[in-house]
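Input/output pair, single chain:
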Amino acid sequence: MTKVFIQLLFLIVITYTALPAQEQLPVGTNPPAIEFKHFPNRIYALVWRNWNLVEPARIAQTIGCEAKDIIAIAASMGLPPAQSVSPDFKKRIYITVIRRNWHLLPYDQLLTLLDMTADELAFALKEDDFLFVKLGNLKPKCSKIKYIKPDSKAIARAKEIKQLLQQHFKASLARPTLPRFAFVKDLQSTEGLPKKETAQYSNENGLRFIYSYFGIFGDPLIDTIHDPYPDGLLARLAAKGVNGIWMHVVLHQLAPGGIDFPEFGEGHLTRLHNLRRIVERAKQYGIAVYLYMNEPRAMPLSFFKNRQEMMGTQEGAFAALCTSNEKVLNWMNRSLAYVFKQAPDLGGVFTITASENFTNCASHGNQKDCPRCSRRDYADIIAGVNEAIANGVHTGNANAKVIAWDWGWHGHGDAPDVIAKLPKQVWLMSVSEWAKPIERGGITSQVGEYSISTVGPGPRAARHWALAKQAGLKTVAKVQFNNTWELSAVPWLPVSDLIAEHASNLAKMDTDGLMLSWSLGGYPSPNLEIAHAFAKNPKANPKAVLTELATERYGKAAAPFARQAWSAFSNAFREFPYGGSVVYNAPQQYGPANLLFAEPTGYASTMVGFPYDDLTGWRSIYPAAVFAKQFEKVAQGWKAGLGFFDKMMAVVEADKQAIAKEDLGVAKAAWLHFASVANQVQFIIARDSIRNNHLVPSEKKIQLTQINSILNNEMQLAKALFEITQSDSRIGFEASNQYYYVPQDLMEKVINCEFIRSQMGAM
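Output:
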């Protein structure tokens, strides 16, 4: 989860009756939906947005027509022939489908389209990494879409769209497009990999654990079909030096609740069985499994009807299970002991005890509202939760690791009091780069987390690790060595110089382990090999490590050019205008796929969900012009790196050309994203200048000329990214968000730009 302090702003009704879906599910402020006027009408928008993601028959059922009607509309716009949609695909794509229909369908029709119950959708909105928060804590007001036969105006506009596709994408559409999630099959395969019986997988020199590149959120242990850690992925991670993986779990789903909590534990035997299977397979590759403990989870108020003594701080319709109550602590202890006895080879847990989900009474900073916790010291509560977890884990397995993450303690401030009270067998984890001072475009600030562009460690982590070592605790650095919310739509960022510098710094700090990713960043990339190199030799020379890696990956002749490319990418990325709202709200995850709007939408950007056109929400502390300039700097520097990559391609060894071509595509995709953000900012500045100022005709002409240039460039970027996505299904994907965009969204962007050109008279 993108960890910010999140209050649960909506009520999920636990028991559903005969209420319509619109009344059962959260709506928030429920403002009018955005209209997408580049389509003939909403029917055409619906068909386009769901084409080859949802079966034509399901789309037809949603709006009351026949599949042939949907197929005819798709053909009229020039969309490719329909493909079958497998059950596996539906499970992996549903978040993407929810997002792209959020402004089109009311809940009732959305449920039909998704083939979901209101119960299932409510669970997804709450548990799939705070999906409703990512959607803006609101459901736009949408009237029902009812099929009507296209009239002459709609037919004419559909013909125009088809002609635009032929004009801009004719050559590209003649080439096959790799199915989305094709990478899953690739990463599942063990073909060409060493047999686990004979391979020497390295798991020495400290802890290095990571999340699955394509793990499905929600309740992964009840789902036996969508294995987050197949053998192929485990083998590839192990080969990169990874020796730990982690999973999202909810404790009351893993163990029976006993007499105090008889409603807990439904389905726990199935989940434990599936957990053991993953643990056993991972062990064969020298990899241990770690569980994410964000406990005890808050419960609905009805849960406390006969448990008032356990009811802690309240937030909306939920209340904390108060950890000042012995029964709560005993339940946590017993449950974790049970889990670790049932799965004895589990590696351990890591905890978040201040925020994420609403858990203990101090987790969201409101302990004063609890009659028991208000009388306790903050450090006692936080350390006490970690102690209860540690006691339970170590009762089940004395050798398992308990990693206490200091995320959120004292509002991300210094927490010497908490560290002093942690049990001695607990490891302390800190975000490495936190509080590191930076200057970008003349603007000074500090980074929080999710930054590769800023090389850690920062002062907070350094202080906390020093205190932990003084107390006899081991230390872990939380990093993102593949990607971050600075850009998560590519599997890894080839900024290898930054990674080597950071890994070298942490080796000198003598940290005992690395958490290599949150939900994003789990790809088995060469960046992970850099981390492993410094784990094996803390005194390694960064340049030597990178030269060896480049030679191994591309060959001796190509290595110098690869090194120049990596250095250029790294230097460019140092200009990224980091800020909290930048990484969460700006459009870099969508790049050229993010639509432009001739008129302001009025919608606020959401956390890695919808950027909209909310420049104020994107830019954080940066003036608009500076914000645009910084993305231009990143893009320009990155483009220079691509030049070195092109030179490398001319001399790369024959047996390494395929991987080199893939890496070039990833690097180019990153550049296209950065360049597009600069375009989008400049477009909004020019658009709003025309709208908000009384410009003389000559000044207006200048702005319209700039807009025309931006539109032309955005279309070029969209077309270039379309070609990359055709051959690489990883582009645009991130585990917790599924696909930010799919290839047809890049075609839509071109249609969108041409429409805006005609709408604004920018010729």
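Residues 593 and 729 are 15 Å apart (CA to CA). Confidence is low (pLDDT under 50) at residues 1-19.
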